[in-house]
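Pilot study result, target chain (538 residues):
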Amino acid sequence: MTGLIFSGGPILSMDADDSRPEAIGIEGDRIVAVGALSDVRRAVPDAPLHDLDGRTLIPAFIDPHGHFPDSAIVSLLRADLSARSGCRNLADVFARLAAKAAETPQGNWVMGAALDECQLAERRLPTRDELDAVSTDHPIWVIHSSGHCGVANSRALARQGIAEDSADPEGGRYLRDGAGRLTGGIEGLSAMGEMGDTHFLLDDASFARCFAAARSEYLAQGVTLAQNSWTAQPLLDLFQGIAAQGDPGIDLILLPVAEIEPAFSQTGSGRDWPNGAIALGPRKLLTDGSFLMRTAFLTAPYLGSDDLGLAYLARDTLFSEVRKLHRLGFQIHCHCNGDAASDMFLDAVAGAQKHHPRDDHRHTIIHGQVMRRDQVRRCADLGVTISFFPAHIWYWGDLHHDEILGPDRAQDISPTGWAEAEGLRFTIHNDASVTPTRPLQLIQTTVTRRTQSGRVLGPDQCLSPLSALRAHTIDAAWQVFREAERGSLEPGKLADLAILDDNPLTRPETIDTIKVSETWRHGRQVYARNTKRVGEPA
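Predicted structure:
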């Protein structure tokens, strides 16, 4: 089948005029006609009609920031310790780890993942001694859902060369009790070392298995372009192995870590990286940690403390890295959770622009959870864009309000309303596997800003359903320089489509209950919920 017409329900084009065409026509992997059904029929003669039957057609969702295929790595290879999987207390955590140890050869790693102590009855992480009680025959490493910290047992600490007298590395901490003894807690990527890497314990076969599972998950959610937003060299090698096998079935943007440049692009595998479905994108920097661990870097202390969090990079180091990447012509995505981290990055961009002016660089702050309005305005002045993390409002908004930031600052986390008012183009993301890739739930939270207790944080920061949809489609394409080929339903663009069973614009309070009916990638149906795929034999 080379041609097909979609009509029979609302079509939300996400073009510059937010037009609502009656039909679209596709041929091969491209959209070729958009408009009245009669005009589209003339443009694609003899093409069959794919009746929407009242359902809503939109451009496929684009993941503006995430870590594909982490969700499948957690579910298939690790002990899944998330509340979503049923872990409600430490006894559940230890039982999951013990079961994993029982099926793991002695001396091999046992790894738990996606643990969020805020969802446990005890409201704390396990300790080294408690993990030793699970097993001393295995090194055990439990990584937090944020990816910014974890807990190791004694054998894992020894395996990694972390001793009682080990000094804290720059940007990281080895936690100790009142007597100065290691508790097993480790904070910061520099301290976690290889245990914090996505590729830890992966090989080609296990990675391919996880890739396929994550692909199925994303396509079922209407996502056809995903990201791996912290891609070290070993992970780049794994993705290159997938790319060498042909079309991977989903499009990906990889964000190489900044430290491997310029060698990666000038003399390494990045120099000849194929421009295919798995493509290289911005380079990635990390300035601070996570709110859940109080390591996001703030200008005002966390509630009830004098703690300002933790800068992962010294200011001079950050400035040097930004100048390097900016001068080389790369787009930069920089993780900045706290406003002090955002200040550092914006200062660094301003300095880089002064010495090496560039038009339309689209450097991006990732998360920007407590950005002040003056910072949002400064982003607009500097040409910096933001990818916000509104999923935090649903998952941890009450914690922000009651324990982390307090009721005043919590109102303006993920300040999408300010960004829209300042005319700043931005996106919204889930940061999978920190929160699962669920675009419609994310859009719902961005529209209502409702927490799990029903509290609304910052009503003036709420977006309209249309603005939130654009932030996950055409604006997400624009943020990574892909707006010419995807993100809206316009002639010449890739035929990447999602069909929803209802219209998000007409039910703003219940968008999260809408389901994806079908997903189309490059003009081919790649997901159909409870229906036979187009082109399948009867």
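One observation from the pilot: The mean pLDDT is 95. A full batch analysis is planned for the follow-on phase.
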